[in-house]
Structure formats: structure tokens, C-alpha cells
Batch of 2 targets.
Target 1
Amino acid sequence: MEQEQSNEKRKSNRSPPYALFNLLVIIVAIIYGAYYQMYLAKDSTQADETLKSQKSDKIINEIPLFTANELKKFDGVSDSKLYLSILGEIFDVTRGEQHYGPGMPYNAFVAKDISRAFVTGEFDAKSSKDSLDHVLGLSPRELVSLKKWRDFYAETYVFVGRLIGRFYEETGEPTEYFWQIDRKIQFGLKQQEEEQNFKQEFPPCNIEYKADPGTTRYWCTTQSGGIDREWAGYPIQLFNQDSKTFSCVCAKKENFDLPQLRLYENCDDATRSCTVQSEEQSNDD
Ligand code: HEM
């Protein structure tokens, strides 16, 4: 009920900019979709550049190749070494035996490629309808997180070779599947960078709840939202694309007329701290 009332209130306050905002959302969605397609396009120049450097690597250093059967041995039992594969790259994790050894918490990662489990936490190949190295269904953001795991292994453990299969051909060259994933990761990284830039311009507010008398205080400092900056800004509601939910961000006055921003009730544009009733609370709460 309270939610409906506050939605109504918002609608009535937002009629003209609301229409403009919807139009903006549609335009952004179209540009975003086109941009995404561009990234997934087969002839991505950036990917081709990476491919070139990988090919020359292959010529200069002979990279050992493993079949899934060969990798299976490195489970700490058949062979005392522990190997795991992520995105088709195999690492020797023997010195992390306390994590990966037989009976240890992350032993399921060993002697195979179950890349998807790094994101989903789903370890049981039998109960999964796709094999656990199939990662194309993950979102760009999830794939970036998977890439971070790959980078972690590259920094922490010794690379021992490539796994022939989903990500690498029998020749050791990356498969088309590998490049599809690579393009999606690059798209995810770009997305993350844009989000980071947005957060620099609109950092989250500090928030304090008071159960009695049911109020929430929003305020801005030069460090709120974990973003160090020279300006503090003013607390303001930032509406999501659905125009129903919002969060509190710190904005500079020059940005106040953006359609997705709206001042809290009873908080004028000179208020650095806003205390509102719980019904005005946002999805930060
Ligand atoms: C999708 C979920 C998760 C994945 C894929 C994951 C994976 C991993 C991996 C691979 C390691 C070993 C890193 C290394 O080689 O040094 C690790 C370490 C660790 N994980 Fe997780 N983890 C997950 C969730 C969690 C959760 C929920 C917790 C805590 C409740 C946790 C606690 C730890 C701790 C404490 C270590 C370090 C152990 C140590 O250094 O002795 N993990 N994790």
C-alpha cells in the first residue's frame, strides 16, 4: 500500500521528464544492444589482434597440450601432482594441496576443466545438463569474474599447458568457442569500466537507519560510496531503468536536471543530509 502510494507520488511528480526519460532508456537500450552485437561479431578487430599474438607465442614456445584423459591422471593420487584447467589453461596447483588435495574443499576442481563452477559453485557434472566447461551461457559480468580466476591462477601457480577440447584445438590454437568467450569478456570489461566511470560521477550516499522513529538519513561526504573525490555532492534519488526503484547517489548540482534524478521530498538542493520517512526509502535499504 505504502509502496503504491509512493509510486503514485513519483508518477505525478515526474510526468514531463518521465516521458523523456523513457525515450532515453529506449535509445540507450538500442545503442547498448547494437554495441553488444558489435562485440560478439565474428570479425572483432581486437580479438584478431590477440589471436595474432597468441599464434606467434605458439610458434616461439611450444606449449604442451593435454587431452582430457591425460589431465585426469593429475589428481594427486594416480600422479602426485595436482593440475586443474580453467578456460582450457592448465595450472600446476600442487603447492595449494591444502585446498586441492584429496579430501580437501576444492578437490573437485582438480584433473579436469569445470570452469563454470568458479562462477556458479555447481560442482556436480552428473546433475548438470551441460558439461561444466560450457560457459557461453554466463553473462559478460560472470565471465569477467571467471577471467579474474584465470588471472589468479596465472599469477599464483605455474602454467603447464593447454587442454584440447572446448577451448583449444588439437593443434593448440584457440577454438572459435574460445574467441566467442574472449569477445564476451571484453564486452564485460568495457561494461565494468563504464559502470566505474558512472560511479565516479554519482557515488553512493552514506546511509543510516533509525528503527525508531522509522527514518533513514542519507548524506554525502568526499569519501561516501568508497569513492575518494574533491567534491561531496548532494543526496538525490537515482531511478533505475524500470523507473520504480531507486538508490541514493551523491550528485553535483550541475547534474540535477538529469531525468533519472529526483530530490528527496523535504530536501532542497542545498541539503547535504536528508532524513526521510521509511516509505521514501529506496532499494538501498
Ligand atoms: C562459487 C563459490 C566459491 C568458489 C568457486 C571458491 C573457490 C576457491 C578456491 C579455488 C580457493 C583456493 C584458492 C587458492 O588456490 O589459493 C578458495 C579459497 C578459499 N575459500 Fe573459496 N570459493 C567459493 C566460495 C567460498 C565461500 C562462500 C567461502 C566462505 C564462506 C570461501 C572461503 C574460502 C577460504 C577461507 C579460502 C582460503 C583458504 C585458505 O587460504 O586456507 N569460499 N576458494
Target 2
Amino acid sequence: MGPCTVFCILLLPVLWILYALYPALRTKWASVQNLNEKYACQWVMVTGAAGGIGQSICDDLARQGLNVLAVGRNQEKLDELCSRLQTSHRILAEPVIADFSQTDNYTSPPYIEALESACAGKDVGILVLNAGLAQVGSVLAPNARALAAIAQINAVSQVYVVEWFMRRLVAHGRVTSAVVSISSVAAFTPTPLASTYSASKAFVSRFMDGVRPEATAAGIDLLTVHPGPVRTPFYDCLDDQTAKRGMWLVNMWATGPEAVSQAILRSVGRVNNIPQGFVGVWGELAMRVVGTGTVAWIMDRVGLGLIARKERALYVDKFAKRAD
Ligand SMILES: NC(=O)c1ccc[n+]([C@@H]2O[C@H](COP(=O)([O-])OP(=O)(O)OC[C@H]3O[C@@H](n4cnc5c(N)ncnc54)[C@H](OP(=O)(O)O)[C@@H]3O)[C@@H](O)[C@H]2O)c1
């Protein structure tokens, strides 16, 4: 084997890794775009606006002069956010109450009506789908309903909202617009104790990829963001004491919510999918290099995997006693 062949063989994996890292590298060094100028619209709609990442997104977009439709469930929190956005950035901000856990036998769920009437008469050109929550627990625990609700809130509702928004954009003849979805690095790997969360995020990521050709044809940029851990109230929902004890590990790698928002401004319309933060970037790369199976094997032996084993033992013990 000549030196040229050896060089080529060694070069191939390097090129492949660079290719895999391209969206992250592109995002890191790209300039922050002014989305007000890029999409020439007056309003942006942000779901989960009162949450950690949602608030940062609202602030960054309002700073660029965009009016904000802030979607969430808590009127008081949204009112507070809107009046702060209006005074700090001199824009218009309106609260929109919508609960994405609602279903309506697969016709149009009630939240679509709420979003539609909030948008009436407004030039809304950007939608950020950020609302979401996690539930940590064993599938053996009696909380299957709560675990299944995660799929409804994180995944199914996004189908309805994207479908409604895209139709609206097309009907209003907007030339260019954007839809951003906040997925998670969990989309790439089975996550013990958070199986419905990671599955819901995988659904959202693949859904966005599948819709992209139609969106592109309609002049709509679709961006999916895959953040690693982010310092927000997101983890307050953990009622599992054992999982809470693992929070130091999450905090060690976590970025601030403003980093996610800045990543969006750098990448929308330039790339389709971006990993975000140290865990997002290297986690995604690891999964591409060693494959989901290997990462799942590792996950099963550290962190949540270990806790899952303890929980399983607990329930197996409980069920065995009940059977006796
Ligand atoms: N924090 C992380 O480590 C991390 C990592 C990767 C991805 N993410 C994703 O980032 C997104 C934002 O999370 P965050 O970290 O900012 O957490 P957060 O502070 O808990 O915010 C979550 C937001 O989702 C909204 N929401 C929850 N359930 C809802 C429902 N049924 N209907 C409507 N809205 C609902 C909440 O609205 P209310 O104000 O009405 O409760 C809240 O504003 C989520 O999609 C999450 O999966 C987070």
C-alpha cells in the first residue's frame, strides 16, 4: 500500500468528522442574523415563551424590533413577560393562552383556534416551537398516562401547529418565513427513565426533516435545534429523588438559555439541524461515529441507566410481594 493510499484512508474519517461537525462549526463562527430584516415580518410567535429558553428567544427577537406573541398556559407569567418586553424593547407583545396537552379526537385541537385568533390581522412570519417538558420515571411505575402525555405535548401538538402555520403562511402569500423547533440531543439516543421524552424529540426531529422539502418549496426555512443540557426551570419537574441527585452532572455541562437563542439567530436559514452546547455537539458526533446502539449501551451503565436499574429492582420487588 503506497503512502498516497494510506494518506487517503486516514483523510477519509477526518473529512467525515468535519462533515458531521459542519452545522456546529458553521453556527459557532457565523454572524448573528437580524431576523426582522431577513424575514421582513412584524410578528413572531414563540411557544413556551415564559420558560427559560423561550424567554431568551423572546428577548433576542424583541431586541431586533419584532413584536411578540408569547404562548403559554400561565396568564400571570405571560402578562409579566409581555409588559417587560414592551418596556425594555419598545415593541408590542401579547400573551396567548394555549395548552398543548389538549386533544380533540384528531380533528383540530382547541389550541389551534387560540393561535389562529391571536394571529388574526397580524403579519406573523416566524414561529418558534419551544414548549415542551420531560417526565422521568420507570415504565413500571403507575404513571403511564403522564409519560404518554409527553408525546402529546412535545410531538403531536407540533404536527398540528406546523400544519396550521404553514397553511397560514401559504394562504397569506408570504415569500419567506421560518419555523424553528427546539428538539434535544435526547432525540438521538434511547434515554433510560426518559424514554417518552427522547422518543418525542426523535419524532419532532424526523418530522421536521420530512416536512422540509415542502416547506422549502413554499419559501419557509425549517430549523431544528438539538440542545444538550440548558440551565432552566426545565428540571424542576423531576419528582424522582434519585434523578434529582444526578443534577450536578447535568449542571456541569449545561449552557445558559441565551446560548440556544443565539444559536438560532446564527443558523436559521443557513443550516437545517444544529446541535447546541458541548453535550449537543459531541453527543451527536459520538452517536454518528459509534452508533445509537453503543451510546444506548453506555447510557444503560452510567447516570440514568444506573438509576433505572435501581428503580426496576424496586418495582420487581414490589410486584413480587403483590404476587405472593
Ligand atoms: N433545559 C434543557 O436542558 C433542555 C435541553 C434540551 C432541550 N430542551 C427543550 O427546550 C424547550 C424549552 O425548555 P426549557 O428548558 O426552557 O424549559 P422550561 O423553562 O420548563 O420551559 C418549558 C415551557 O414549555 C411550556 N409548556 C409545558 N407544557 C406545556 C403545555 N402542556 N402547553 C403549553 N406549553 C407548555 C411551559 O409553559 P408554562 O409557562 O405554561 O408552564 C414552559 O414555558 C423544551 O422543548 C425542552 O424539551 C431543554
